[in-house]
Inverse folding.
């Protein structure tokens, strides 16, 4: 009910009670095929983030940076690369390329087989990393990571498009939240499990084999159980199909034209892009650099390192539900406008991590418990950001929210490439805490400046260009249904 109210206010539509009750009566079973799709999206994002983050932990063992690592025996190769930050950033070189094209390709040609191809490419590239490292060194790993980035560039735009076909307005909050929670859960399980594998008799190569095999397994599940739209599903009940498509107003395939000029000259859109910039920069530092910092400065072995690296994501996962519930309550009880609520929670999700990163830069080796507390604090506060900029796409333009996500995520992912490069040139001695301190100070400044821009120019209202080129018949029918 909360999500329906939000959608009504953001789109200017008003649900009438009779129509709402008909939808509840006709939606079919409590657990339907739409929920199976939701589970598949969750697993897709989980495995994607597992394969994205595995190298952040494994690279420590691959380069013999951990005294307890079994990678230092003759069975598992050990490398001594001086470009580790470049290797870690290579994923984002490919990732930024297909964000916007993916949204348009998927809408035009369908998502199902697009995800099959991209998942196979992603999984295969992950499995090949140990052999490529052996044959070509860091350059071989860079090639694999670029291909992984290219493949995963299709994931978020595709899932957003799929949700627009499968998630009814009255269930969109639950289905959408559960689906995207897979990304956080992927980090929670991959970081400690990768660390355990790297420190075990199996060795670091098996970490890549495990997550690559998981991705290929998901591909088979998707081929048999994944569908672009309810009308294409071969076993869905007519009752559930009518409920989903009727509530979404899916009358025909014609889409509104994209008002590019209006979008690119919109300050609220730029506030969204700038906000995503700060989040991507900070998350990149937290994900790709924290394992190395913990090993070199705080002297954690790789198993403890990986477990500690997962702690912020666990806090983020749990607190994101608390923050989202609080944000919805403030808006629906009219204690705060939607725009101000977005700004408040975005500020919590950026300024608190900024303070945490500043504190992290001044911790000494003997203050391990304090470092744990700060990392958990950073992760928990980032969870507030999901109620800020993350849902602001729908506030600005329900009709083009998928494109806005691809645009903001694609444009700002370049900073996920830049941040490891900055670390590479600033931290010339990974055992020098003063050099790491510079990185944390810069990251805190990026957080603060991007939040200031968002607070100044963000909006919680639907923009005029949202319906500028909308098909009149589809809009009218959609309003009748809702």
């Amino acid at each position: 009910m909360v999500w329906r109210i939000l959608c009504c206010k953001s789109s200017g539509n008003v649900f009438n009670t009779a129509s709402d009750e008909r939808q509840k009566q006709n939606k079919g079973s409590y657990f339907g095929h739409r929920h199976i799709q939701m589970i598949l999206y969750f697993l897709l994002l989980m495995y994607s983030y597992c394969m994205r983050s595995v190298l952040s932990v494994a690279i420590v063992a691959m380069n013999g940076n951990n005294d307890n690592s079994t990678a230092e025996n003759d069975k598992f190769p050990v490398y001594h690369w001086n470009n580790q930050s470049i290797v870690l950033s290579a994923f984002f070189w490919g990732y930024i390329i297909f964000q916007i094209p993916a949204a348009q390709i998927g809408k035009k040609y369908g998502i199902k087989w697009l995800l099959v191809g991209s998942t196979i490419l992603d999984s295969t590239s992950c499995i090949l990393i140990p052999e490529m490292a052996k044959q070509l060194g860091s350059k071989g790993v860079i090639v694999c990571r670029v291909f992984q980035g290219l493949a995963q560039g299709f994931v978020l735009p595709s899932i957003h498009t799929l949700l627009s076909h499968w998630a009814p307005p009255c269930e969109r909050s639950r289905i959408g939240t559960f689906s995207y929670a897979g990304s956080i859960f992927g980090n929670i399980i991959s970081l400690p499990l990768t660390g355990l594998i790297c420190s075990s008799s199996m060795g670091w190569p098996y970490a890549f084999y495990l997550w690559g095999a998981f991705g290929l397994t998901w591909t088979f599940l998707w081929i048999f159980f994944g569908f672009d739209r309810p009308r294409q599903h071969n076993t869905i009940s007519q009752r559930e199909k009518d409920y989903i498509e009727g509530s979404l107003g899916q009358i025909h395939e014609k889409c509104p034209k994209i008002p590019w000029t209006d979008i690119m000259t919109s300050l609220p859109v730029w506030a969204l892009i700038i906000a995503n910039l700060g989040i991507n920069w900070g998350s990149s530092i937290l994900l790709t650099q924290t394992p190395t910092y913990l090993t070199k400065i705080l002297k954690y072995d790789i198993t403890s390192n990986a477990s500690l690296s997962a702690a912020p994501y666990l806090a983020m996962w749990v607190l994101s539900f608390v923050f989202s519930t609080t944000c919805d309550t403030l808006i629906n009880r009219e204690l705060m406008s939607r725009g101000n609520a977005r700004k408040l929670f975005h500020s919590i999700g950026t300024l608190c991590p900024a303070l945490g990163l500043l504190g992290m830069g001044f911790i000494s080796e003997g203050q391990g418990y304090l470092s744990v507390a700060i990392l958990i604090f950073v992760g928990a506060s980032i969870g507030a950001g999901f109620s800020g900029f993350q849902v602001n796409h729908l506030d600005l333009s329900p009709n083009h929210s998928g494109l806005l996500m691809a645009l903001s995520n694609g444009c700002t992912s370049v900073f996920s490439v830049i941040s490891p490069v900055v670390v590479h040139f600033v931290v010339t001695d990974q055992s020098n805490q003063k050099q790491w301190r510079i990185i944390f100070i810069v990251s805190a400044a990026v957080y603060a400046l991007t939040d200031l821009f968002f607070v100044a120019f963000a909006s919680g209202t639907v923009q005029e260009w949202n319906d500028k080129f909308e098909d009149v018949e589809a809009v009218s029918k959609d309003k009748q249904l809702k």
